Amino acid sequence: MGGGKKNPAYDKACAFAIRIVNAYRHLTEEHREYVMSKQLLKSGTLIGANLAEANGAISWAELSAKVSIPYKESQETKYWLWLLKETNYINDKAFDSLFNDLNELAAILYIILRKTRFRKNAANNSLPPSTT
């Protein structure tokens, strides 16, 4: 997850967080919606924040545990996006765009989880030096 290498999950999470901040700004300024949008802001930006923390993992088990958190946040974010769409705070086009980006990110996180779960069960649980 780290070591200066290109990190597609982290890059996508950061780009998604920027979109979520902009969506939050729009929802609060244009629609005066503060409750659901705040939840969306929280869960949608925590994906990247938790991935940043996962970059410091020192074992496959720790990496797996740390990546499970942003994966769960992605699932919560899907709920808030859906609820905002169903209550007509965001239109179908905005929902589809955000939801598609989120689905891609969640799929990447799920793949990482699957790989780390397999590796954490291996005999050597420490991460190779190039990933820390």
TrEMBL record:
<dbReference type="Pfam" id="PF05635">
    <property type="entry name" value="23S_rRNA_IVP"/>
</dbReference>
<protein>
    <submittedName>
        <fullName>Four helix bundle protein</fullName>
    </submittedName>
</protein>
<dbReference type="InterPro" id="IPR012657">
    <property type="entry name" value="23S_rRNA-intervening_sequence"/>
</dbReference>
<dbReference type="InterPro" id="IPR036583">
    <property type="entry name" value="23S_rRNA_IVS_sf"/>
</dbReference>
